Amino acid sequence: MHVDTPSGAIVALLSVVALLVVTFCSGVCLRAGERGVSVSVVPFWGRRLRWDQLARVDVEEVRALEDFGGWGVTGSHRGPGILVSMGESRTVRLTTTDGRSYFVGLGDQAVDAVDALRASAPPSAEVHFTV
Questions:
Q1: What are the beta bridge partners of residue 74?
Q2: Mind listing the pLDDT tens digit for each residue in 13-58?
Q3: Which residues pair with 31 in a beta bridge?
Q4: I want to staple 51 with a disulfide (CB 3.0 to 4.6 A). Which of 1, 2, 58, 125 is the partner?
């Protein structure tokens, strides 16, 4: 990149800062509370699911390139599903009552995440948890 003007220098600096933010500050987040579960890629994308919208929570291995075309927040060409991963193949799969699936890449923490979601679910939640 060749910078000849002050505005070009500003654009180059902002590009470097944006790249650093994306590289070091983005990550997959899965949180549970009394109202439901939130899935996000901080700071870019997020989705909230109420407990009554969830039918099943389990652990599943995915092949990001083959099944979803890559990492990040990507859709599946093989069926209704969204992969939320920054490179992990072991995911927590959240299946909704209408059949949609969210695959949250958490790697070695996936089993612990399912257990934590089970512990956070209210007694009235009719969600099937498996690991």
A1: 83
A2: 666 655 545 444 447 888 898 899 998 877 677 889 999 999 999 9
A3: 38
A4: 125
